[in-house]
Amino acid sequence: MTGDGASPDSGAVDAHVHLWDLDRVELSWFRPGLGLPRAANVRDLAEASRAATTPAGPVSAVVAVQAADTREEARWLAGLSDPLLAGVVLQYEPGDPSGAAQSAVGARVRGVRVAVPDRRADLADVPGLDALCERVAAAAGVVEFLVRTEQLPAVAAVAARHPATRIVVCHLGLGAAEPGSGWEGGLRAVAAHPSVAAKASGLIGERDPDDGRLRRALAVAVDAFGAHRLLFGSDWPMSARVAPYAEVVARTAAALPALGSGGASAFWGGTARALYRL
Questions:
Q1: Distance (Å, rounded) from C-alpha 36 to C-alpha 257?
Q2: Residue 237: is the preceding peptide bond cis (ω within 30°)?
Q3: CB 63 within 8 A of CB 90
Q4: Contact between residue 164 and residue 142 where contact means Cβ atoms under 8 Å apart
Q5: 238 contacts: CB under 8 Å, gap ≥ 6
Q6: Which residue from 31, 137, 258, 263 could staple onto 227, CB 3.0 to 4.6 Å apart?
Q7: CB atoms closer than 10 angstroms to residue 185
Q8: Does 7 score more than 60 pLDDT?
Q9: Average per-residue pLDDT in the chain?
Q10: Is the per-residue pLDDT at 209 higher than 80?
Q11: Which contiguous run of DSSP H or E holds residue 62?
C-alpha cells in the first residue's frame, strides 16, 4: 500500500531503494556491524515513507535496486508484488555477461545496474558492456551505473557509443566522496549526452551536518543535467543509518536549488515514471 492510498500514477517516486530478506536470500556483503536490518521489506518501507511529504506529494511508487548479485536474489526481488513497488532493477554480474539479468528486462524488471566501483577507471575490465547496452535498449530498459568519480568519463564513453540506450548514474557518481573539480568534470562529461540521467541518491552523510556538501553536489547536478534529467532516490534502508526517511526527503528538498514547478514535478516523480515506464 502507498503511504496515503494515492495512485502510483500521482505523487512522488523514490527511484532508489533496496529490499532484502536474509531468511530467504543471503547477501555476501551483509554483516551485523553495519547497523542494517536482516529484512528490509515493502511493509517497513511504506511505514517509513508515510511520514514524508515531497514537493510532489506523498511517495506513491518506488523502484527497488538489487542489493547484491546472485540469481537467487534476482528471482526473489523480481517476484515481489506490492502496490508501492512499481519496478525493480537487477544487478549485472560481469562474470556472467551472457545475460541472466539483462534478458529479464520487461514486466516488473525495468533495468540492469552495473555496480563496478572496484573495477578499472576506464571500465575495460568489465566484460560485455556494449552487448548489455544493446540488449537492454532493445527491451526498452535502463542501464544504471554505480561507479566512483574516476569512472565517470568511461560512462560518458559508453553513452557516446550507445546513444539509444537510456543510462542512469546512481548517487550522482559521487557517493561518499567530496564534490571536487574531478567529480564535477566527470559528471558534466556524462551529462553532455542527452540519453543520460542521474539519481540524487545516497548523498546524505553523517559528516555533513549542515548539508553544505549536499547543496554543492545538487547545485552542480541541476546545472549540468537540468531538473528533467534528475531523479530522487532515498537509498533506503542504507540511508536510515544516518537519518529517518522523512528527514532524507526534507534535507534533499531544502538543499535543492530552485527547480520551478515543472522541474520539481520531474525531479520528484515525472522523470522516473518516464525512464522506468511506471
A1: 32
A2: yes
A3: no
A4: no
A5: 18, 36, 202
A6: 263
A7: 13
A8: no
A9: 91
A10: no
A11: strand 57-65
